[in-house]
Amino acid sequence: MSDYHDDRNALPPDPAEPPFGAWSEANAPRSEAPPPRASAALDLPRLAEWLPRLGAVLWLERRERRSPPLRALIGARGIVLLEHPSLAVLGRCVAITAHTAVTPQGPREWLSFRDTKDEVRAKLFLLPDTDYLAWDEMAAATRLAPTREDTPGWHAHTAFLRGALARFGTAWCARVLRFDAGRLPWLRTLDAQPPLRLSLLGLELARTIARSESAELVSPLHSA
């Protein structure tokens, strides 16, 4: 035999083996949660699962007398039937945004529902009676990051324009309500009911928000 095979030192050294588990740690796929966003597409079937958990909220809707509202919405996850007339505006909304502001009455948080023209058609304001833990869980599930808004002061010109728009067929109505979701074999339902109870602080804040939004506070819930 040749000297090469007789001399084991002439053979190339074996590559060093990595310690057990090193390769799996280096190549392990990273699962990073998507970053929060300021706006999200309106997934009403999914949102209908979260809204009833909030409890009492203040609901603002922009009514358009010239356009008949849609009462059902067909999405990727199925059909949602909007049973209460005040929720029919959601049938024309395609996006949702979250907002927060600091006011003389304290922090204020709300959702804005927008149509294809990016115009706000409905708003949902939190009240002291709202379940804030459910709100945080819903924001995390939808990955909505609230944007901080400056609280505008009262201006006569702005108030005049809002009043003029109301006379020309567009007005804001405000209601204190709680959501109620149901499920049928082939669709889901989303309804609105009067809250079982509401604190005096919650009622006063609802009146304050309605005034600041130039909205008419409708009571009881099913009034026109």
Please give a structural write-up.
The chain is of the alpha+beta class and 224 residues long. The chain has one domain (39-149, 156-217). It is 24% helix and 33% strand. The longest helix is centred in the last third of the chain and has 13 residues, at 200-212. Residues 19-29 have low confidence and may be disordered.
Key terms:
224 residues, alpha+beta, globular
Straight-line N-to-C gap: 105 Å
- Our estimate of the beta-strand percent is 25-35%
Uncertain ranges: 19-29
Q: Number of DSSP helices?
A: 6
Mean pLDDT: 77
Shape: globular
Biggest sheet features:
11 strands, mixed
**Secondary-structure element sequence?**
HHEHEEEEEEHEHEEHE
Number of strands: 11
Identify the quaternary structure here: single chain
Helix content: 10-25%
Please give the domain count: 1
Backbone CA Rg = 27 Å
The class by helix and strand makeup works out as: alpha+beta
